[in-house]
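Human
Can I borrow your eye for a moment on a structure tokenisation matter? Give me a protein, with the fold worked out from its sequence. Write it directly below this note and I will take it from there.

Assistant
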Amino acid sequence: MENSPEISVVVPVYREEGNIRPFLERLRAQLGKTPREIIFCLDPSPDKTEEVILEERKGDPTIKLLKFSRQFGQPMATLAGLQYSKGDAAIVMDVDLQDPPELIPAMIQKWREGYDVVIPQRTQRKGDPWTKRLIVKVGYGIIDKIADVKIPPNTGDFRLMSRRAVEAVVKLKECHGFLRGMVGVVGYNQCLLPFDRPPRKHGETNYNPFTGSLKIGFNGIFCFSTAALRLSTQLGFLVAGGALFLTLIYLILKLLNFNIVWGNPTLVLLISFLGGVQLISTGILGEYIARIYEEVRQRPKFIIESSEGFE
């Protein structure tokens, strides 16, 4: 069973000691006797997450553990799990049970029908603060309009991928680890599976709803589209056109002997607006340059400190 799993379940974890056992209980109930491997990808945690996983492994050899040398973050942990997986299909999911294991049989059925990628799509986001829901709605709306690849809205990393889709994703060189976009680049036959996302069962999330959502949104915008660069250029032309139009107004009023004094407020507004546009444009360039810098360094996406269950 261990040498030829049909399903690999990739689970990035950090500070999740209270969720491991409930997650495994529900996961096993859904997988039944399906040949499998359950790969926990652990960022070093201050709690007993590692100890709980190793304790569970004693009674279940299909449980495997990748522990990183430092915190590389959830995206890199996910890519590591996919790279080490051996199943005919791989399922990426969180351990907090907001990705319900009860969807797995339907996902596997879709895969057996011929789909390479099965993506659960959230119809409701129970437990999420309104700020996160707003950011997500706006962010996905922008990404949908400008991204060069199709990234379905209201989806996370929770998905099933066939072996050929997994291998194609792992081959990609991007170091940002934005799985949703990388799967979009790979393509293949995909389908959506609507579900109501439940609230988190145990503990507090390690995910910052504001900065985390912004980081994901920026990756979607800057890593999979050049629209922001074009917007910067368009703003430049708009500001230049506005300045030219204002200059013509000044000249016409001067020729018509209108004695109008525009004064310092006008200068302040124009300089402030122009400065803002310049800073926005510089910031957009900076976002692209930063990602280019990350790519050309070619640092490893992750470093494994120890592993359990891998040959």
